[in-house]
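Deliverable D5.2: sample structural annotation.
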Amino acid sequence: MPHAFLRRAARALALTTLALGASAPALSQAQSYPDRPIKLVVPWPPGGATDALGRMLAQRLTERLGQTVIVDNKAGAGGNIGTASFVREKPDGYTLLVATSSTNAANPHLYARLGFDPIKDFTPVAFVAEIPNILEVPKQSPYQSVRDLVEAARAAPGKLNYGSGGVGSSQHLAGAMFKSRTGIDILHIPYKGSGPAVSDLLAGQVDMMIDTGSLAQVQAGALRALAVASRQRLPALPDVPTFEEAGVPDMHASAWYGIVAPAGTPAAIVDRLNRDINAITAAPDMRQRMEAMGALVPAGQTPAAFGEFMRTEIDRYGAIVKLSGAKME
């Protein structure tokens, strides 16, 4: 009996030693992190909201981490090219990605071949911001409220239209949700990008658009905002009601942005980045800059909470894509 006990104790000690030995490199890596520049992949071209948020965050992370954070734009295929490339990077904390509602929630339902698994290939790090869609009409439009618009659409089914950046775009999905929530019949006009769609909206060639990138035109008076698709009003547009306040329930359509690392990134590195990013987005001057873009900045979330949010968004966007009728490419 004593011999059996001694053998078991020896085995347990050996296993513990092996485990500690295996974890030692990861522990050492986490303690010295970061000791060289970090790459932040933005899977969209320069100039958009994803790029702007990525660059703002990279600047502040550089200051906090004491290492340069370099933005690497890898655009194409609705964000899939850069994202698919990212998941092949080493899980060491030196390559991060700006994940979005397009790449990590909508695209799994829009593309037959993503090149990545939206859950298994990522380690959630931090939720950064969301930019709600805004229902907009041209300044010369006769519609002064959501109620005006809905009543006009019900009086003449199929007569009014809405523009989007293309089939499956955020504007298309938001428009499909609006149709479903109100029971109206409005025609979808897809464009090759949101820029041409907004141009025709400004010119009055399109009746409405539910967009995330036209805040400047609204603030300049070229477009009239009727409602925001979020649970709270935007600081940048405090006089514009939410859809709920305008009488349309459950109309939530926002582009969201967060930071992820490759699957398998050490927890100590993830926790360090999470604390730093949450501190950056909580800073009053950073929050002010993001709100000026039309963003809502959430209270700091844990990596686990952000991961759960991403999972629920995949399911939610599946239902929205089905409503839109967009076909998988």
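Annotation notes: The mean pLDDT is 91. The first helix runs from residue 2 to 32.
The annotation will be released with the project's public dataset once the embargo ends.
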